[in-house]
Amino acid sequence: xxxxxxxxxxxINTYDHKDAELLxxxxxxxxxxxxxxxxxxxxxxxxxxxxxxxxxxxRSHHGELLDRALAGPHADLVDPVRPDARSLxxxxxxxxxxxxxxxxxxxxxxxxxxxxxxxxxxxxxxLYSALDAHIRHFEVIVPRDAVAHIHQDLAEAALxxxxxxxxxxxxxxxxxxx
Amino acid sequence: xxxxxxxxxxxINTYDHKDAELLxxxxxxxxxxxxxxxxxxxxxxxxxxxxxxxxxxxRSHHGELLDRALAGPHADLVDPVRPDARSLxxxxxxxxxxxxxxxxxxxxxxxxxxxxxxxxxxxxxxLYSALDAHIRHFEVIVPRDAVAHIHQDLAEAALxxxxxxxxxxxxxxxxxxx
Amino acid sequence: xxxxxxxxxxxINTYDHKDAELLxxxxxxxxxxxxxxxxxxxxxxxxxxxxxxxxxxxRSHHGELLDRALAGPHADLVDPVRPDARSLxxxxxxxxxxxxxxxxxxxxxxxxxxxxxxxxxxxxxxLYSALDAHIRHFEVIVPRDAVAHIHQDLAEAALxxxxxxxxxxxxxxxxxxx
Amino acid sequence: xxxxxxxxxxxINTYDHKDAELLxxxxxxxxxxxxxxxxxxxxxxxxxxxxxxxxxxxRSHHGELLDRALAGPHADLVDPVRPDARSLxxxxxxxxxxxxxxxxxxxxxxxxxxxxxxxxxxxxxxLYSALDAHIRHFEVIVPRDAVAHIHQDLAEAALxxxxxxxxxxxxxxxxxxx
Lengths: 178, 178, 178, 178
Hints:
Largest sheet of chain A: 7 strands, parallel
Number of helices of chain A: 6
Structural class of chain A: alpha/beta
Strand content of chain A: 15-25%
CATH architecture of chain A: 3-Layer(aba) Sandwich
Oligomer: homotetramer
CATH class of chain A: Alpha Beta
Number of strands of chain A: 7
């Protein structure tokens, strides 16, 4: 799969926000899956782009965000999936990875047309980002075991919406970068 | 309710697109509800903004779109909810009412901060538009009997997402502009 | 020149705005040049896109704008350059042809990569549109005899900026679609 | 002046790009002026927002950009105007400070309506940013001794354009935060 990027959404996280307790079990299950997927993507030289909330911190850059997350009580969910020296990084202020960020520009510039969306939250940022990617004519792949949810029922509906209405390919992470 | 606009999404329609057959029963139920709501909003002087797909027609304006829809086999679903002389009109090219349209600009310019989203399709354009409105800090109200769906299950999930994750107020149309 | 569109900026105009008196001599000189250029572009089947201010009228479409301009005292400046049945039309609310309009989407969708910018005002909308086109990686051509100015000195500087800093090709209209 | 932010454009710079030789004399003159202005703004508690090119480095954050600039031959032009612990920071990929950046969102969120634009280059990024600020209805102030140019003639024209066509207030830096 060339021209395909792995997009890691909101995994640099202190997990101290509203609903974090509901998210933690799912995030805990996703981290090892995503770790494996990151390893395979990096091995193949696929571009990895972290797109992460700035948590209202307009000063923050990925170093600061990462340091804070690694200093928190849930460092074990952050350390395995941290950016490496080649990772690209885009800060977002709101839900969608595309809203007022340079992501469209970055992806076009690098000739990336296909996005593997991973991270959290399935029925929120992942869903919204899948929509915004589809609107912009990117091809979207969502490995269902590499996205974490808060509400199981909404997550199931979100995956169905992505598949049925946004042309996304929902698959298992083991099918990617094999 | 001042500073509140009624937003009518994709109701100027020939209903000859994919999935139209699935949409028609729901749209048929929505038209009289929306007609009443339009009447009440107009009576109170609330701004009414039609935001409608251009159906790939970059020449089209609302006159042409309306003429075509009124000449089609489903004119009875279009005629009762047609724009009047005071209606505003914004063409969109993709799903969300905000994507590459002047809608944000128009709403800010007119001091409108609260949007009543009506029309179709609940689990598609209405959902996406509710999200994009929320991201832009508009207050969103969705009268559940004034939005039409293709798939009942996804529509239910969409309304739940709007309420739980996008801060939308989901209500009955009879509660608006009473 | 394939994949090249002729972009006609703000020529559907009643010329009753501030500074119109300063603009009229230049616009009067540009109209016959643009008429010839429109003829040659249409003959070759090049797409012609009118991008025009909505003059604050959110109801307006190109029919209404055109009718009003043709009913005004400067109809002679509008009639020769009016849209024909194949012309595309995009309404803008602010200076740049790209600001909160679907123009980027339309151009990408039609595979258009090169823009010939004509119309008015050289040191305002034409300059801003050239910049926004350059930022979006479109190739820009500006026929200097087909753009109208309010202030000669600023127009000269604007053309120099387009050429030197925005990678635009400034030429004579007779060199296009020969 | 409350609700006014000092915007520092592209001053974190290695000055090894095309035209840097032409820019250096003007930048050298601007640095002490901007240093004084920064001091006064910080003393008054005015928000200071650095908006800086990422120089094609999608990994970069302000720490990395700053380190690189301070390690280069023109560290003396960067050190006096470096961000402090309260400075906000926005990366841009293209000329305008608003193009695909979260700046509009940040400014609205912080209630900032008036922008003092400083830095470089007068007839390029400063001009384009003044335009994009004006289009978005921000009030713009440009202290003419705190902006650096490459070409004197175009810079003069650019300042005239900002004043005449973009409603900007062009002044002397000594008149700000007195």
